[in-house]
Each structure stands twice: as structure tokens, then as C-alpha cells.
């Protein structure tokens, strides 16, 4: 039995990203960054996710305790456990955000001690990691400019 061939045209191949989409592609050769220097994407959102999951877990544990109609010591342990879970989640989330923003771990530990307020303060603090990455990038560019050979007419 002969094979049927489709009369529909083949779709064009998928093109790569156009050169105008990458702002670094149009730089002059002496201003381009070395191949190994690419900025690491921030994973700060993981810290916020941990804090939100702690809040959701707190609400879930309290809701489960109410649904099970716990009373006496069991209700007290459920309440204490839910507060402990939420507090630790906020603390760990604050530490992750602090480190991702370029601050020392101790800043995250100290701000995490005042749970949601510390996370809010840390959110409003400047991002040192981006500033340091910009400084490193500009130092590399300046180093490349200084290493360019002199023009023959000078």
C-alpha cells in the first residue's frame, strides 16, 4: 500500500532568539563580558515561599485541631506545634532571603527572630547581591578596556 503524503507545507524551523532580544549582543567586542561570567538568578522567592508555607501550615494545623474538636492538653500541643512550625518557617525563610540578598547569615538570624516584621524589614533593605554583581561586571569591563592594545597612530 503506497504511503500518503500530506499536501500541507512543512512549518518553518524554530528560530533562535533574535540578536536584538539580548542587550549584551550589541556591545562592542572590548565591552563584552567573558564567557564564564553570567549572573546567577536570585532564588529569593524560595525564602518567601517557605514563609508563606509556614503560615499556611499554621492555619492548617489550627483548622485540623478545630475540626477534630481537640480539647485539653491535645489542643494546647496542637496550638504550640502550629506556632512553632510557623515561627521556624518564618525564621528559615528570612535567613534564605537575607543570604540571597547578599547579607550575612547573622542578619537573617537576627531579623528572623522578629518573624514577620523582620521579613518585612529585610524586604525593604537594599539588594547587596545585585549591587555587588553590577560592581563585578563593571570591574570586568574596565579591566577589558584597560587591556585593549593602543592604536597604532598614538
Please explain how this structure is put together.
It is a single chain. This protein has helices at 44-67, 73-100, 105-112, 115-124, 128-147. By secondary structure, it is mostly helical. Helix 1 (44-67) packs antiparallel against helix 2 (73-100), helix 2 runs antiparallel to helix 3 (105-112) and helix 2 (73-100) packs parallel to helix 4. It starts with 43 loop residues before the first helix and ends in a 7-residue tail after the last helix. The mean pLDDT is 79.
Order of helices and strands: HHHHH
Average pLDDT level: 79
Count helical runs.
5
Could you describe the largest sheet, including whether it forms a barrel? none
Gist?
This protein is mostly helical and 154 residues long. It has helices spanning 44-67, 73-100, 105-112, 115-124, 128-147. The chain is flat, with a radius of gyration of 27 Å.
Amino acid at each position: 500500500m503506497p504511503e500518503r503524503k500530506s499536501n500541507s507545507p512543512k512549518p518553518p524551523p524554530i528560530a533562535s532568539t533574535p540578536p536584538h532580544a539580548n542587550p549584551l549582543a550589541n556591545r562592542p567586542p572590548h565591552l563584552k563580558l567573558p564567557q564564564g561570567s553570567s549572573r546567577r538568578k536570585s532564588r529569593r522567592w524560595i525564602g518567601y515561599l517557605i514563609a508563606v508555607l509556614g503560615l499556611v501550615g499554621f492555619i492548617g494545623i489550627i483548622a485540623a485541631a478545630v475540626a477534630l474538636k481537640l480539647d485539653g492538653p491535645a489542643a494546647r500541643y496542637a496550638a504550640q506545634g502550629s506556632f512553632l512550625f510557623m515561627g521556624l518557617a518564618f525564621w528559615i525563610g528570612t535567613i534564605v532571603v537575607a543570604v540571597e540578598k547578599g547579607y550575612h547569615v547573622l542578619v537573617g538570624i537576627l531579623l528572623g527572630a522578629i518573624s514577620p516584621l523582620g521579613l518585612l524589614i529585610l524586604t525593604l533593605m537594599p539588594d547587596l547581591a545585585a549591587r555587588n554583581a553590577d560592581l563585578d561586571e563593571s570591574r570586568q569591563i574596565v579591566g577589558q578596556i584597560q587591556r585593549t592594545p593602543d592604536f597604532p597612530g598614538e
